[in-house]
Amino acid sequence: MTLSLFAVHLSDGALSTAWWASGFAVSALLLLVAMCRMREEEIPRIGVLTAAFFVGSSIHFPLGILPTSVHLILNGLVGVVLGRRAPLAITIGLLLQYLLLSHGGLTTLGINACIVGLPALVAGVAYPLLRRPGVPAFARGVLLGGGACAAAVTLNFLVLLVGGKEDWHLLAKLVLLAHVPIVIIEGLMLGVLVSYLEKVKPELLGERSS
User: Fold this and answer.
1) How far apart are CA 177 and CA 66, in angstroms?
2) pTM of the prediction?
3) Distance CA 92, CA 94 (A)
C-alpha cells in the first residue's frame, strides 16, 4: 500500500484504464464548456487563480503518526471566483504540479481534474444562490470552502474504492479521515476571504455571464 495516494491527486497506476480514460473524456467536456465564449479580460483572473491553486496545493501538512502529509485544495475559492471557468485553472494547475513537482499523475490528470473541478463548479453555482436569501458572507464562505473540499475528498474516496487497480479500501478510508482538518481549514479560510472581498472587491465573486 503506497502512502503517496494520501494526496487527493491520484498517481499513475492507481486506477483501472477504464476509469482514467473516462476521466479524460469528462474533463475534456468540462474544459470545452469552460472555454466557451471566454473573454480576453478574464484571462488574468484565471491566471491568478491558477497560481493560487498551484501554490495552495503545494503547501503540505504532516499527519504526525503517519509518514506522509495532506495539502490544501482551494477548489472552493477557485469555483466561487471563476464560476464555470474553474476547470481551466484547476486542470492547468494539476498539470503544472505533475510537470514541476511530480505530484499526481499524467494518466490520472483527467480524473483528478474531475475530482477537484466538479465541486468547484458546484461552489460557483451555489454562491449567488446562497447570497440572494441573505446568508451571511462568512457562513457562505465556510459552507462552500469546506463543502467543495469535502466533496473532492469524497469523490477521491469513491474513485479509489470503485475504480482502483488494486484493493484500496483501507487507504481510501484513511484518505477520507486524514483530510478532515483540511476541510475545516479551507472552510474558515474561504469564510474570511469572502467576507473581505465582498467589502473591498465584490465584483470578483460569483459566476461571470458571457
Assistant:
1) 12
2) 0.89
3) 5
